[in-house]
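Q: Convert this sequence to structure tokens.
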Amino acid sequence: MMQMADIVKVLKEHRGDAIVVPGKSTRYWAAMTTHPELDVPLTPGSAMGGRAAFAFGLALAPPHRKVLLLDSEGDMVMGLNILPTIAEHAPQNFYHFVLDNECYATTGGQPVPNAKNIAYDVVARGAGYARTFAYDNLETFQINVERIMSGPGPVFVALKIVPEIENEPIGQRKRFVTRNPEQVRKDLWKALGIAG
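A:
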């Protein structure tokens, strides 16, 4: 299993000018990003189960720019129905990373159903993703990430990570998203040269 912070460092190095929906990794991504104007953090509770659909929509809008989604297996279980739609439309710029810690870490660590046995890369392949991968070792992931990112999407990458369980009440946790949704939209539109 890998540390989430290490995965974020690797992806940051290969990001380029991609739009990033950091999902579960927002706490690390916010501290490391070099292009916050291209980051689209979603409020944790409001996006549960919908991050993949949201990021897929972003990938359809500017098809010339890569979109990286750092999803979670909890989100994925709640939103499996989006996988066939993504596969059918086959956005060449969509890179879907699922950070799998086998539990709902933000709500106290309850286990995700069948967590030890489910192969999310196989599920994505069955839904029609052309390229799927799974890694539980950082060195192997680092060796392959450039090949993954240089090839066409849609790509699905399942990454096994160490759980970082949070037990503090949500209202008392440190906030990592410092911009409100309207500011995120304005920053992104400006970075993409969209009037509005």
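The CA atoms of residues 12 and 34 lie 8 Å apart.
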